Amino acid sequence: MTKRYTGGCACGAIRYETSSTPVFENHCQCRDCQQRSGTGHGSYLSFARQADVTVTGEAKTWRVTADSGNEKIHAFCPTCGTPVYLTFVAMPELIAIHAASLDDPVQFKPHAVTYGIRANAWDTMDASLQTFERMPR
Length: 137
Known about the structure:
Layout lengths: L4 E4 L6 E4 L5 E5 L2 H7 L4 E6 L6 E3 L3 E6 L5 E6 L6 E6 L2 E8 L13 E3 L15 E2 L6
Parallel strand pairs: 3-10, 10-11
Antiparallel strand pairs: 1-2, 2-5, 3-4, 4-9, 6-7, 7-8, 8-9
């Protein structure tokens, strides 16, 4: 049975859906994810092909240079400010959905923690998850 992922922003102006399988699900503790989430990490489901994720509504975007040195493009709702997804200049096909934006956040099953080198002691993760100092290659 194919699993379907749906979600969007808090006000409903931006929605997405896909039946693709995530290629990676992770908690990221890089400084950018900390600042953007307002906590110690961001949580994401990454899909290999943007074309397989249908997005409706117009997101605002802004670019930032990540800890890796690569440029990320954040997409958020211009009405309510909810971060919904991000893309990567170095990997233009990849799209990462914010786990908290899922209609059913229980669908998020993290595989790993990235940028553990930036972890805050108060932001504890599941000890059974593999932790990478940076992003695995």
